[in-house]
Amino acid sequence: MTEFVDLPEEESDLDREISQKLNPAKLRDVLLYLAARIGAKPNVGETVYYKLLYFIDFDYYEKYGRSITGLTYIKNHYGPTPVQAFADFVSEMEANGDIELANTKYYAHTQKKYLPRKKAELKSLSASELAHIDWEIDRLSDKSAAELTELSHYDTPWLIAETKKPIDYRSVFYRGDNTSVISYDDEL
After folding, report:
1. pLDDT confidence bin for 186, thresholds 50/70/90
2. Which of 133, 165, 109, 108 is nearest to 57 (CA)?
3. Which residues contact 109 (CB under 8 A, 6 or more apart)?
4. Could you report the per-residue pLDDT of 56-114, keeping only the tens digit for each?
5. How far, in Å, CA of 72 to CA of 170, rounded?
6. Which of 85, 136, 139, 141 could form a disulfide with 38 if both were Cys (CB 3.0 to 4.6 A apart)?
7. Is residue 151 domain-resident?
8. What does the alpha-carbon distance between residue 7 and residue 27 come to, in Å, rounded to a whole number?
9. Residue 95's domain spans which residues?
């Protein structure tokens, strides 16, 4: 006779879809990979990283039902930003010698650059995750912080979130054509 065992609440499929959990190994690899690929671009500072990470995670969630890094983002005036745990994580990476933070001038602004001191190992990322990150880099990394902020302001998850509250990943399924990364065929 087959015995069915209920999964513990934290292991249920529903929980995995709703509650993203920070994956430190993936976040470290993604940050090091981004820093190596785009960190030297003059337009790339901390705000660009925030928006790229947001689109990497939320677009991947729209396609596959889960985020890559598991970061939680909140709605701020200038668009989505990762919660304080992200800043703590970056500080830890700096203390461990993984990255170097440098302030540089970009026109009239001071920007915080993330410079890699180590190479991303990438063993925590799947081929589809890495391909998705490359796609996002190609699509968005030449945009300024202002352009990425404006794009995020058209995104349904940011629009419907409450100010200073977490942005719900599930709201990607209500995106409009201007930010959705999935084409839905209306042929039935």
Report:
1. low
2. 133
3. 45
4. 999 999 999 999 999 999 999 999 999 988 999 999 999 999 999 998 887 787 889 99
5. 13
6. 141
7. yes
8. 27
9. 21-174
Which residues lie closer than 8 Å to 119 by C-beta, 6 or more apart? 32, 36
56 contacts 117 by C-beta, under 8 angstroms: no
Q: Which residues contact 106 (CB under 8 A, 6 or more apart)?
A: 42, 43, 45
- Structural domain count, the chain: 1
**How long is the chain?**
188
Residue 10, domain member (yes or no): no
Structure tokens at 144: 């300024």
- Under DSSP, the state recorded for 164 is T
Rg for the chain (alpha carbons), in Å?
17
**127 vs 10: CA distance, rounded Å:** 26
Residue spans of beta strands (DSSP E) within the chain? 73-76, 79-82, 99-106, 109-116
For residue 36, with 0-12 CB atoms within 10 Å meaning exposed, 13-18 middle and 19 or more buried, which class applies?
A: middle
Whether 65 is covered by a domain: the verdict is yes
* 22-40-147 Cα angle (round to 5): 70
Place of tokens 């909140």: 74
- Residue 6 in any domain: the answer is no
pLDDT for res 53: 97
- Report the DSSP beta bridge partners of residue 112: 103
Q: In Å, how far from its chain's centre is CA 37?
A: 16
